[in-house]
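From the methods appendix. Each design record in this collection lists the tokenized structure first, followed by the designed amino acid sequence. Records were kept in a plain field format so they could be parsed without special tools. The example shown here is representative of the layout used throughout.

RECORD:
FOLD TOKENS (370 positions):
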């Protein structure tokens, strides 16, 4: 009841409203954001450009609370993964930092688990607990960015919402967190450097266009409804024709916008030249880029990664059709930090984790990896 308000839940507009409601000027919101997000200061007493009485008021009524870092791991290739405790560490989420030459990309989770049950994804096998709050989403960036700065390293330069969960099923909290990522008084990331990845929640894709201008990635994985229904069950609700319509609408008249299509390469399932041909016909006239993701295995996975030659042929075919195609290198797979390997640890409310052995047997025509 008298629980203190976690100010990490607020974007600038919400903070301004909060200060105004408490008789303070809106510029306090900008000051507070600079302290918290840019300087990494979470102790109100240190916010010396605020009056003593305001600092006292904040200390009494507010908090700036992150999840707790439970573990952090570093892969041989430099990829780092953090396990963050939420709900008093009863549950945990994961986020991953992928350092490259000039970029440091943070892969952020949006939900505790996932409801979508894509058949090749290990997060799906864990079931679902709940949406993350804005505070829990932005705290992933706060923690990692300020840890890097404290180590004398360059901070986070890019964010991809490609961790656990479906970001567009947690729309408002994700958008508020994205606001802070892009805010000049927050992390000041350009909108091109923040990517929301979706399995294709069509109505939310339409809403996205109205509220933000971030980069959009769409997990396509199959060129026709029959196969996509199997791999991404959400397709039964929003079939490919509707998804493509939403993609075209998102690109709209924006000259600089492109959709990134993600396509996981599953041996003998979706990786033939015929699949490549149909995919190119499907997306060829949409301003886009194609990311081929070699399937990352995990225990009990029913798929295998495509042969390198199949991936190369696929890439050559779609590139030959004028689609910019990149094969994503698996990063951090030695610490289970690669795509689809983020599982965190949480109580499953969907009871899917118990059911999944059965449901896997119901998937027909899928080769079983040994
Ligand atoms: N729900 C969102 C965000 C997750 S992004 C979405 O579907 O886009 C994670 C990306 O990794 C998605 O493209 C997902 O399909 C892909 N992925 C999931 N499991 C994988 C695996 N085992 N190997 C490779 N990619 C995987």
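DESIGN:
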């Amino acid at each position: 009841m008298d629980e203190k308000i976690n100010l990490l839940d607020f974007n600038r507009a919400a903070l301004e409203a909060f200060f105004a409601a408490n008789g303070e000027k809106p510029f306090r919101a900008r000051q507070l954001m600079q302290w918290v997000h840019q300087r990494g200061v979470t102790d109100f007493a240190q916010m010396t450009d605020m009056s003593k009485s305001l600092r006292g008021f904040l200390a009494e009524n507010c908090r700036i609370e992150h999840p707790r870092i439970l573990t952090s791991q570093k892969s041989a290739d430099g990829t780092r993964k953090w396990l963050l405790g939420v709900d008093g560490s009863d549950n945990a989420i994961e986020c991953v930092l992928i350092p490259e030459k000039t970029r440091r990309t943070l892969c952020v989770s949006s939900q505790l688990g996932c409801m979508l049950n894509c058949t090749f994804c290990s997060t799906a096998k864990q079931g679902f607990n709940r949406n993350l709050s804005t505070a829990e989403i932005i705290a992933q960036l706060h923690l990692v960015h300020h840890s890097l700065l404290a180590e004398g390293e360059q901070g986070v330069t890019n964010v991809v919402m490609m961790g656990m969960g479906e970001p567009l099923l947690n729309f408002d909290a994700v958008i508020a967190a994205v606001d802070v990522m892009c805010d000049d008084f927050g992390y000041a990331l350009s909108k091109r450097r923040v990517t929301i990845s979706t399995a294709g929640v069509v109505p939310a894709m339409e809403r996205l266009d109205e509220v933000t201008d971030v980069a959009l990635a769409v997990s396509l994985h199959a060129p026709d409804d029959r196969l996509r229904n199997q791999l991404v069950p959400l397709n039964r609700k929003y079939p490919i024709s509707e998804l493509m319509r939403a993609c075209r609408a998102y690109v709209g008249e924006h000259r600089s916008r492109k959709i990134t299509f993600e396509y996981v390469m599953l041996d003998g399932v979706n990786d033939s030249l015929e699949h490549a041909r149909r995919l190119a016909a499907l997306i060829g006239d949409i301003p886009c880029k194609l990311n081929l993701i070699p399937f990352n295995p995990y225990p009990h996975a029913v798929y295998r990664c495509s042969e390198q030659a199949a991936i190369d042929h696929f890439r050559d075919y779609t590139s030959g059709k004028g689609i910019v195609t990149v094969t994503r290198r698996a990063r951090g797979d030695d610490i289970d930090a690669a795509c689809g390997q983020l599982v965190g640890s949480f109580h499953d409310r969907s009871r899917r984790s118990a059911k999944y052995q059965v449901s896997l047997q119901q998937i027909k025509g899928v080769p079983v990896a040994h």
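APPENDIX NOTE: Confidence is low (pLDDT under 50) at residues 356-370.
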